[in-house]
């Protein structure tokens, strides 16, 4: 049985369709990355899954509970970490955890709280106001608070936004440790390196789910060809390439240019022309990255909207 | 079935919410200080300002003659310390003008034939016009008038040793209360203040309850955790019942100690009515909280409610002095009913039967507001 199994979810705010027929399944113990640009509907989709929003259309189950009828059961079994820190800044770290423990009726409260504090390494800071914590610590506190009741599914909404690389690394180690223990994780993010740490990814743009699968599958299914251009005066070369048929993306990467296109033949012709026009320029086949794919998706969906 | 009930209400979860609220309340020092400071400040300001029996009120004298009787009465009035004669008007019209401007609170007119009438024993009259736009201010001064004036006259006549007995019986002091013939007695104010203070703090504080969670972004988390609308409502509302209890104690103690307001009724009856009243207020505040989108809006809605309830409840103006439609409108405010209860119990010693109907009204508000609040509460972010 899939932990998340939703079909045809639609959510409209005003006249705007924010989630447009999203179908998604997540199996037990999977870490699924939920990717997409700002405002693409990631948060809305996650909120529907944890019962915070009612979908206008569509149906599905989370942990076997119907997302419309059993939202209270879902809330008890799911750990949801909001995008913005949403614990009480005027409560201490200890008091916040006690509040959560009591609300989930975890007994004895003190055992849960002190264990969580110990695991976080926050035992000595128990009486510190949560509002005085740095971004990284707030995020760790929030994660600790939402796994305290041992949920079977974690929904994390951009948990690593504004967190330094070391804290991010530690965060992901923790996520993998939890998934190893059978916890299922759906995590939304902007970061490509984080996407590559997921078992599977789903890409959403303007409310539509555009791709899903492992990172390799998504890259391969995108059907993009990438060439690496090297040589002098790459700025000029980039200008020359821009807008030619077959050339979809030109992006400088250090001392090279990544040139990406979906029509391989047209792209090769464009590059051959440019190679002739500019002396000392060499073109070699390159590897398409996940980022290239996403940029392509974003450009494509913008066209759809217009 | 048991599981179904557990989903709707659990004491453990309510306990979690209550503890959280109390901690936040304690930590928010300014708000906490306000909740205790507001009743004291209001009580002292309002109480003394309205309630104190003001002395040395500016008075204009219109004396047509300067005889010994006139002088005796004027000095006797001055001796009461209520009247301060700082204007001598040449004519009634000038005195009228002074009062219209608010320069004087009283105009004392002693007619030209006053001395002659005293000597003849021909029922002499003096006229006192009081500016009763602030009736409480004038009432003390007026109440001393009759005796003071006749005694003064008596003394003046004693010196003359003529027709003293007749004059004593015959002096007539005519009092005209101007602008507002219906006076509010002082004791009306402090029991009324109990209701007003409770209304102000209770409604405003609870009106912020949900909007504060929404503005701080904690609402999303609260909704994502297992807590039912009933639990959230009670968790928000019950702590303020405790605050309200403290306020009631402060106001009642001050009423007794600072203002010497008589308390003739049953304390139990009053406190039970206060409980129902406060419950209706916090639920009203919570209802506002489910409507407002921000704390600012909650504040505005509170004041929108606050002003008419002050004006129409009978706190500021006599309820019976209002036109019929305004009286009907006044009935929709819990304060109106509470004022009747508290004045009846504190001042008239009314028993339960006498105020049962008003308590019934308050109970209706409790049920109504709780129903509206729960119906309006969104357990989702839609």
UniProtKB/TrEMBL annotation, chain A:
Domain ABC transporter: 4-231
Annotated InterPro entries: AAA+_ATPase, ABC_transporter-like_ATP-bd, ABC_transporter-like_CS, P-loop_NTPase
Entry keyword set: ATP-binding, Nucleotide-binding
UniProt signal peptide: none
A Pfam short name: ABC_tran
Family annotation (Gene3D superfamilies): P-loop containing nucleotide triphosphate hydrolases
Single GO MF descriptor: ATP binding
Family: Belongs to the ABC transporter superfamily.
PANTHER family: ABC TRANSPORTER G FAMILY MEMBER 20 ISOFORM X1, ATP-BINDING CASSETTE, SUB-FAMILY H, MEMBER 1
Protein's name in the database: ABC transporter ATP-binding protein
UniProt source species: Mesorhizobium album
UniProtKB/TrEMBL annotation, chain B:
Originating species: Mesorhizobium album
A matching Pfam family: ABC2_membrane_3
The family this protein is said to belong to: Belongs to the ABC-2 integral membrane protein family.
Keywords: Cell membrane, Membrane, Transmembrane, Transmembrane helix, Transport
Limits of the ABC transmembrane type-2 domain: 151-380
Chain segments annotated as transmembrane: 30-50, 189-211, 232-255, 267-289, 301-319, 359-377
Protein name: ABC transporter permease
Compartments in which it is found: Cell membrane
Domain of life: Bacteria
Alphabetical list of InterPro entries matching this protein: ABC-2_transporter_component (IPR051449), ABC2_TM (IPR013525), ABC2_TM_bact-type (IPR047817)
Annotated membrane topology: Multi-pass membrane protein
């Amino acid at each position: 049985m899939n932990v998340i199994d939703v079909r045809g979810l639609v959510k409209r705010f005003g006249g705007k369709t924010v989630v447009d027929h999203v179908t998604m399944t997540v199996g037990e113990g999977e870490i699924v990355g939920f990717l997409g640009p700002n405002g693409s509907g990631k948060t809305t989709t996650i909120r529907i899954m944890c019962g915070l929003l009612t979908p206008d259309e569509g149906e599905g189950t989370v942990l076997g509970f119907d997302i419309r009828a059993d939202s209270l059961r879902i809330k008890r079994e799911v750990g949801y970490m909001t995008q913005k820190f949403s614990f009480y800044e005027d409560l201490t770290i200890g008091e916040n955890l006690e509040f959560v423990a009591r609300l989930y009726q975890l007994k004895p409260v003190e055992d849960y709280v002190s264990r969580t504090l110990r695991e976080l390494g926050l035992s000595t800071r128990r009486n510190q106001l949560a509002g005085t914590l740095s971004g990284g610590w707030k995020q760790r506190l929030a994660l600790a608070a939402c796994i305290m009741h041992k949920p079977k599914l974690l929904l994390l909404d951009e948990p690593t936004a504004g967190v330094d690389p070391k804290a991010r690394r530690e965060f992901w180690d923790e996520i993998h440790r939890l998934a190893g223990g059978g916890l299922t994780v759906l995590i939304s993010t902007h970061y490509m390196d984080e996407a590559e740490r997921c078992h599977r990814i789903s890409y959403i743009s303007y409310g539509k789910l555009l791709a899903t699968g492992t990172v390799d599958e998504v890259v391969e299914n995108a059907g993009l060809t990438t060439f690496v251009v090297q040589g002098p005066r790459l700025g000029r070369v980039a200008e020359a390439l821009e807008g030619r048929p077959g050339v979809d993306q030109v992006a400088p990467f250090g001392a090279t240019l990544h040139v990406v296109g979906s029509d391989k033949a047209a792209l090769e012709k464009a590059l051959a022309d440019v190679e002739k026009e500019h002396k000392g320029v060499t073109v070699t086949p390159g590897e398409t990255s996940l980022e290239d794919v996403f940029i392509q998706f974003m450009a494509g969906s913008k066209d759809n909207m217009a | 079935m048991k599981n179904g009930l557990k989903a709707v209400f659990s004491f453990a979860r309510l306990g979690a919410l209550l503890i959280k609220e109390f901690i936040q309340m304690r930590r928010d020092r300014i708000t906490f200080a306000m909740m205790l400071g507001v009743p004291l400040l209001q009580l002292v300001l309002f109480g003394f300002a309205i309630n104190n029996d003001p002395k040395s009120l500016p008075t204009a004298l219109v004396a047509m003659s300067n005889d010994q009787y006139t002088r005796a009465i004027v000095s006797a009035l001055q001796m009461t310390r209520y009247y301060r004669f700082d204007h001598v008007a040449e004519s009634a019209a000038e005195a009228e003008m002074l009062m219209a401007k608010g320069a004087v609170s009283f105009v004392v007119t002693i007619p030209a034939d006053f001395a002659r009438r005293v000597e003849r024993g021909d029922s002499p009259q003096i006229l006192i016009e009081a500016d009763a736009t602030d009736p409480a201010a004038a009432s003390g001064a007026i109440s001393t008038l009759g005796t003071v004036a006749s005694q003064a006259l008596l003394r003046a006549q004693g010196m003359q040793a003529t027709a003293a007995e007749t004059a004593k019986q015959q002096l007539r002091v005519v009092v005209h209360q101007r602008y507002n013939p219906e006076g509010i007695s002082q004791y009306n104010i402090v029991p009324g203040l109990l209701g007003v203070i409770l209304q102000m703090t209770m409604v405003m504080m609870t009106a912020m309850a949900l909007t504060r969670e929404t503005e701080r972004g904690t609402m999303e988390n609260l909704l994502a955790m297992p807590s039912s609308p009933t639990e959230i409502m009670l968790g928000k509302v019950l702590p303020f019942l405790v605050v309200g209890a403290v306020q009631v104690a402060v106001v009642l103690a001050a009423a007794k100690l600072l203002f010497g307001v008589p308390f003739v009724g049953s304390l139990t009856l009053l406190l039970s009515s206060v409980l129902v009243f406060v419950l209706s207020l916090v639920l009203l505040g919570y209802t506002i909280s489910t409507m407002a989108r921000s704390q600012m809006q909650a504040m505005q809605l509170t004041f929108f409610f606050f002003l008419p309830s002050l004006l129409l409840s009978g706190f500021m103006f006599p309820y019976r002095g209002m036109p019929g439609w305004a009286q009907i409108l006044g009935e929709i405010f819990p304060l109106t009913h509470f004022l009747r209860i508290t004045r009846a119990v504190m001042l008239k010693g009314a028993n339960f039967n006498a105020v049962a109907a008003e308590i019934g009204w308050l109970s209706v508000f409790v049920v109504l507001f709780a129903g509206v609040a729960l119906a309006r509460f969104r357990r989702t972010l839609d």
